[in-house]
Amino acid sequence: MPDKSNAKSMSIIVTKGSLDWAYPPFILSTTAAAMGLDVSMFFTFYGLALLKKDLKLQMTPLGNAAMEMPMMGGHMVLPNAMAMLPGVDAAATVMMKNLIKKKGVASIEELREAAVESEIKMIACQMTLDLFEYKREDLIEGHELGGAATYIDIATKSDINLFI
Amino acid sequence: MADAVLDAKGLNCPLPILKAKKALKDVPSGGTLEVLSTDPGSVADFEAFCRTTGNELLDSKSDGGVYTFLIKHTS
User: Fold this and answer.
1) Do both A112 and A157 map to the same domain?
2) DSSP annotation of A112
3) Does the pLDDT value for residue A127 go beyond 80?
């Protein structure tokens, strides 16, 4: 439970749902909660996938010129013409998950569990739910539903507002 | 001797902080928690954590790649 002696608060709009982009919002939200802030996360568009019970996070090197994977003492950058080939996303995902484990970085499942434990308010965007035909029962317990006005209301009262 | 010890060696950001926060809950007010970490980033992070939460960082030292923090639970 966040300690309420510190009255600061933070909100994050979560718009991306790939394995790599899932990290910044969950790292910042769980850390802020650990530092006593009241935290709200608003999951919209592709970010909504991060609330699904069954996380199947993938990532792609396609169009990501800054993605340099450590390999054999150097770094590997995949040209787009190769990154588009079948199987490359799956291989990049496996590679990233191995790195995450090896470097002692938390899994997204672990961070999301910590977010639930620290009572971070998680709001699922109703419009995205309708748009992508997700069902509420496919999302984790404890989420709330809301729209733009819900977020703006929270943002006006928050000390930190982030869009990721 | 600290009242509690947390071994966060091998863990990366933000796990040492998250686990320290959890461990502090079981330390009575005025008690101390010792955290061991191998994450160089945790040096700045434990300073920031204590500054924001009001807990007191009594000691921060480094020895052979292991960082040791002594935190007094004051909030």
Assistant:
1) yes
2) H
3) yes
d(CA A46, CA A44): 6
Query: Is the pTM for the entire model greater than 0.80?
Result: yes
- Evaluate whether A139 touches A41 at the Cβ level (below 8 Å): no
Chain B touched by A106 (CB under 8 Å): yes
Interface with A, mutate which of B15, B24, B27 (most A CBs under 10 A)? B15
Residue ranges covered by each domain of chain B: 12-24+41-52
Catalytic positions of B are 13
The CATH number of the domain where A131 resides is what?
3.40.1260.10
User: Is pLDDT at A137 greater than 90 in this prediction?
Assistant: yes
Q: Mean pLDDT of successive 10-residue segments in chain B (75 residues)?
A: 95 96 96 97 97 96 96 92
Nearest to A6 among B15, B20, B53 (CB): B53
Number of structural domains (chain A) is: 2
Same domain membership, residue A93 and residue A49 = no
Cβ–Cβ contact A34 with B under 8 A: yes
Alpha carbon A148 to its chain centroid, in Å, reads 19
